[in-house]
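DM from R.C. (forwarded with permission)

"hey, sorry to bug you on a friday — could you get me a structure for this? deadline for the figure draft is monday and I only need the backbone to look sensible"
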Amino acid sequence: MEKEKKEWLKTIGAKAFPEPIKWVYSFPEYEGTFNLSERYVKETPLDELKAQYMRNKDYVGELLKLKKGRETVA
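My reply, with the result:
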């Protein structure tokens, strides 16, 4: 990668992932994504992956409730 690009990435606070992201998921109306590396999926038991997914889903649900609450006030 060009030095200029590396410097620009540094100025915006971008961080390199230690390994490639293989899967990405999101939820309806949520603007962010959740990234999963191949190693993480391979090394994490399915029950733990499912539990983390549900925690993320609950987290997104709370964020969306707060967002909708602010929109109705505005």
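R.C.: lifesaver. The first strand starts at residue 21 and ends at 25.
me: no worries. Residues 18-73 form one domain.
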